Amino acid sequence: MQSQSARQVLAPDTIRFERLLPGPVERVWSYLVDSDKRGQWLASGSMEQRVGSEFQLRFHHAQLSQTPVPPPERFKAYEDGVTSTHRVLACEPPRLLTITWAKQDDPSEVTFELAPVGAQVRLVVTHRKLKPADVAGTSGGWDTHLDVLADRLDGHLPQPFWPVFSHLLARYEGLQQP
């Protein structure tokens, strides 16, 4: 049931991904806001569904599949996981969630939009305010994480994160070459 669409570049600092996932919308929403469910595809961490609330996300990419694969040398700093701080900017359950993304001095922003499409749910992820140097890596990250989410919602075991991410990152880096 996984429906993958290519990355859309909406502006030099804005990317968008869309996935058609098994519903209902409340189920998909729970994978955005519940720490245990979000930890199965992205990162764990308790989050208050209230505008202005701060929360931490704990990323441990190798643990997203049953077959942990260590990161490539370039990403060894992430081997034991990484924690980042975020803030809720908008929250309209179960349809819209916007959060800041990581860097505290000048954070980017991620919006998750959910809409029912029959028995499925369209998830649109838009990441804004990206620095040019972060576009390829962020694109590869979202593409990989959304594939893991689709696998989880479909009842499949996801592929190991790092090999999939490395392949997608190389593709996105290649797209940025002049």
Automatic annotation (TrEMBL):
Q: Which SUPFAM superfamilies match?
A: Bet v1-like
User: Source organism's superkingdom?
Assistant: Bacteria
Gene3D superfamilies noted in UniProt: 3.30.530.20
**Domain Activator of Hsp90 ATPase homologue 1/2-like C-terminal stretches:** 24-153
Recorded hits in InterPro entries, A to Z, give: ASHA1/2-like_C (IPR013538), START-like_dom_sf (IPR023393)
Q: Would you identify the family this protein belongs to, as annotated?
A: Belongs to the AHA1 family.
Q: What is this protein called?
A: SRPBCC family protein
- What lineage does UniProt assign to this protein's organism? Bacteria, Pseudomonadati, Pseudomonadota, Gammaproteobacteria, Lysobacterales
